[in-house]
Amino acid sequence: MIRAYSLSETFSEEGFNLYREMRRKGITPDPLSFSFVTKCCVKGSSSVLEGLQVHARVLRDGHRSDSRLLTTVMDFYSSFKRFDDACKVFDEMSHRDTIAWNVLISCYIRNGRTGDALVVFDMMESGHSGSQPDDVTCLLVLQACSNLGALEFGERVRRYIQEHGYGHLRNLCNALIAMYSRCGCVGKAYQLFTGMPNRDVVSWTAMISGLASHGHGREAIDAFREMLRMGVAPDEQTFTGVLSACSHSGLVDEGWMFFDHMSKEFGILPNIHHFGCMVDLLGRVGLLDQAYQLILSMSFSPDPTMWRTLLGACRIHGHVALGERVIEHLIELKAQEAGDYVLLLNIYSSVGNWEKVIEVRKWMKEKGIQTTPGCSTMEVKGEVHEFVVDDLSHPRKKEIYEMLDEIGKQLKIAGYVAEVTSELHNSGAEEKANRLSYHSEKLAMAFGILATPPGTTIRVAKNLRTCVDCHNFAKMLSGVYNREIIIRDRNRFHCFREGQCSCNDYW
């Protein structure tokens, strides 16, 4: 019965109540009982205390050597973001099988320590862990590679998959398509996709979404139509991909058509993600009031992401009044974040309203609202390098800054001028330009020029939206140095080639 409750999404908390009743009746739980009740605690929204009680009883009843049970306890701690506790359980395990190592990798990914997940794969593959990676390990590590933009490591995982006979597994092929797309190699993703003998809706959706995120809207729509011709029924995620393709490519008429056909032809009611794509599409072409009215017309409450999408459009088009209204909605939801106020500051600074900039900055300081530091990562020879603004931690920092200064001189000769509106302090133009000079993605690009042969594609992943100045910098750099530069920011991919960007300067 406890196992049955552990499989339920709705009644999982009843499993813990049954466990307590079992103990009251004097029946001693065995490792399976503990494992299933722990899974109930993982699914329960307010079951941290119950899970701690179960773990204490596991230790008290002498099950310290049961690796499968302790792996479930690890998963419990990981699910509730108690990273240190999960690692402590792992360290105390007397025997660690592949499942335990997989849970550790999952724990690293859930807690934002994605690079450490790659280190664990290294240990497992080298034989130092005592356990070999299996198909689940590969699936998790491909997710980590996608998050980091670690293409070379992802290629290594693909070779491991092929060498160990996992190449026929469709879920791994789907994960590889997503990995290549997320690492800026949509061509390789498409090549793998076309070679798959059995493609399901997940395969098609991954390919459509990959094309969409790279700005290939027409190609994504063609893939969707081919999917229908092949008799594969789309699901909600497929339509999110198709509408995203319309959004990234500014295809308003096509977007409305697919949005309408969802329910009428396929019986899929638009969810919040589909509305969000439409808001983004309308915002992209400057129809901000129409986007706002669409949000208000929804039968369910908009989430913070949707309001932030509209706020981003207000930043692009300089719509001050609507931007202020969107912030009010976020405050009502008690969901405002530092990034929202940065967008509002961008709107004010773009129209030169420095009084409002100072006012918002003061208010943020009083409320203790701190911005998330920008962080960019890039992979060179299988090693992931991380940069933050004004970074001094990299072992080759002196060479990187010298290279960045040299790049700056070359770009100025070619006509590059710093976009000082990206700097939100009311200071002189020269001081603003200096502040912008050492953003994390610029440091990453300089390192890419320094550390890779001429003609090598530079791939950078950033945790935040890239600023206008860094975007202009990358465009100019791609032309002057004849490099393809692919930056994946929080919103989308930017593929810079010969002084142009795939996003057409909207993001």
UniProtKB/TrEMBL annotation:
UniProt keyword annotation of Repeat present: yes
Residue spans of the PPR repeats: 1-29, 97-127, 200-234, 235-270, 337-371
Superkingdom, taxonomy of origin: Eukaryota
Coiled-coil boundaries: none
DYW domain mapped to chain residues: 415-507
Gene Ontology terms, MF aspect: RNA binding; zinc ion binding
Keywords, alphabetical: Repeat
Keyword Repeat in annotation: yes
Pfam families assigned: DYW_deaminase, E_motif, Eplus_motif, PPR, PPR_2
InterPro entries: DYW_dom (IPR032867), E2_motif (IPR046849), E_motif (IPR046848), PPR_At4g14850-like_plant (IPR046960), PPR_rpt (IPR002885), TPR-like_helical_dom_sf (IPR011990)
PROSITE patterns membership: PPR (PS51375)
GO biological process: RNA modification
Classification via PANTHER family: DYW DOMAIN-CONTAINING PROTEIN, PENTATRICOPEPTIDE REPEAT-CONTAINING PROTEIN
UniProt similarity note: Belongs to the PPR family. PCMP-H subfamily.
NCBIfam families documented for this protein: PPR (TIGR00756)
The protein's name: DYW domain-containing protein
